[in-house]
Amino acid sequence: MPPVNGDSGISPYEEAMEALSSLITKRSRADTSNKGGNFETLFDYVKILELEEAIKEMKVIHVAGTKGKGSTCTFSESILRHCGFRTGLFTSPHLIDVRERFKLDGSDISQEKFLEYFWWCFNRFKENVTEELPMPTYFRFLALLAFKIFSAEKVDVVILEVGLGGKFDATNIVENPVVCGIASLGYDHMEILGNTLGEIAGEKAGIFKRGSPAFTVPQPEEAMKVLEQKAADLDINLQVAAPLDPRLMSNMHLGLEGEHQYLNAGLAIALCSTWLQRTSHVRIEYYNTTASLPDEFIRGLASAWLYGRAQIVADQFIENENPGGLVFYLDGAHSPESMDVCAKWFCNATKGDTKPAYNVAPDESNASVDRNQNGSSAKVATKILLFNCMSVRDPQLLLPRLMKTCANHGVHFNKAIFVPNTSVYHKVGNVNSPSADAQVDVSWQKTLQRVWEGLVLGDKGSDAKDANSTCKAAAAAAPATDNDSGSCTIIFPSLPQAINWLRDSIRKNQSARLQVLVTGSLHLVGDVLRLIKN
């Protein structure tokens, strides 16, 4: 139970979020604790929670990678759930609510259960911490909480997505996973994991365990050599899972959009097939077959769902007034490689002669989406970019890849909007937007703006004539505001102001249709979802 809060006026859930926020440190991401500092203390925390035996008995699928690990875990959970197993899935980050990180049988854990397990763990730690063993940090606490939840809920299979790296990640206290997977590798978190693909691969391979089979996807040669050597050192035969052949889906489509998902689906099939074999449920190696997939696998792959990855959402505030007038295309891409993938998906999804495949949550209706496309087919679509990224990332690596890939597919943005995230990194739960007269630091957004304008005017990624014409077209696509000088970019000090500006654009021009790509940060994607769904 939570401590008595008297007349604080906050809900029990908000009180838990405040307690959880107290575990967020202000240390930099490159702090030694992220590079293995005090990793062994995780086992002390496990003892405090009395989870040593429970974790040893868990039937775990453990997945690391730079991009695609969340999708691979989501596919794996859905496949095994459709095979009839009780599943527990731990992923990160969350977009709207921290409970998204803990899924039981495909659904976020309920508030009631979350509070019960949260306070049980939090109070246990409070009662046992010392100077030498302080409260666990934010992500470590969440990982330990996941183990408590899955143990208490008696799940059949635990699917763990590595938070960062692998070797020193809090999920890596699992010493005997049933099977491990490494999704696609690329350059990300280099201040922690290293500056080369080889160094990054070495950190990811830290989840390999002697006696546990391991799979990966096709990788760059430098990364693959390291993965193979790390596996050989542990007498593991590292196998490469082939991308899923779409013909094996029996005319059904993957639940997660994008060509790259066939790579993640192939890895998920290998992991689930191996899990079923090693837990004595089947003896067929489905990942080696080119003939057919079990119906349970197909249904699992087709019904997989993940917020903020290749997700298309019509703005509900505009929908009744102007069906299909304002549609958001959300993808949390934040690495150079994922920018390419995101750009290709956006271009394919917005083709004028193709009805976009809307990534709609299982409990939402498709009716309004179908009406959007039918009702707005005659409208001219204007492409808008809504972008932000963390300052530890290099926009010179991200934005050129996005612009060039889109240009190669004939897609140009009429305007790029840059905003700070609503979310803050020192607090979990609802965060109020800054007041209209608050002084907001947009210096980082000005940096992003300069990079984008330099690309447009410098002919990096598109024909110069087209690039300049897109800037001029922006003024006709949206109303003039104090922030808008008719240029190809605009900065808003808050996300709600940007969303309101987009809505006003549609209200003042009923024949317009805005297709807004939201990318660069999963936090930004979550903030947009929170605003347009409420």
Description:
The chain is of the alpha/beta class and 534 residues long. It has helices spanning 12-21, 41-48, 52-57, 69-82, 111-128, 138-152, 190-193, 197-204, 221-233, 261-278, 295-303, 316-319, 336-349, 367-375, 395-408, 443-457, 464-477, 495-508, 522-533, and strands at residues 60-64, 87-90, 102-104, 107-108, 157-161, 179-182, 214-216, 239-240, 311-314, 326-330, 380-387, 415-418, 489-491, 512-519. The strands form two sheets. An eight-stranded mixed sheet has the order 4-3-2-5-1-6-7-8. A six-stranded mixed sheet has the order 9-10-14-11-12-13, with helices on both faces. Strand 3 and strand 4 form a beta hairpin. Mean pLDDT is 85; it is low at 28-35, 353-360, 362-377, 460-465 and 477-483.
Largest sheet: 8 strands, mixed
Care to count the β-strands? 14
Query: Strand-residue fraction?
Result: 5-15%
The oligomeric state is: single chain
Helix/strand structural class: alpha/beta
Helix share, percent: 40-55%
Mean residue pLDDT: 85
The first-to-last residue Cα distance is 30 Å
Per-chain topology:
Layout: H1 12-21, H2 41-48, H3 52-57, E1 60-64, H4 69-82, E2 87-90, E3 102-104, E4 107-108, H5 111-128, H6 138-152, E5 157-161, E6 179-182, H7 190-193, H8 197-204, E7 214-216, H9 221-233, E8 239-240, H10 261-278, H11 295-303, E9 311-314, H12 316-319, E10 326-330, H13 336-349, H14 367-375, E11 380-387, H15 395-408, E12 415-418, H16 443-457, H17 464-477, E13 489-491, H18 495-508, E14 512-519, H19 522-533
Parallel strand pairs: 1-5, 1-6, 2-5, 6-7, 7-8, 10-14, 11-12, 11-14, 12-13
Antiparallel strand pairs: 2-3, 3-4, 9-10
Helix pairs in contact: 1-5, 4-10, 4-11, 5-6, 8-9, 13-15, 15-16
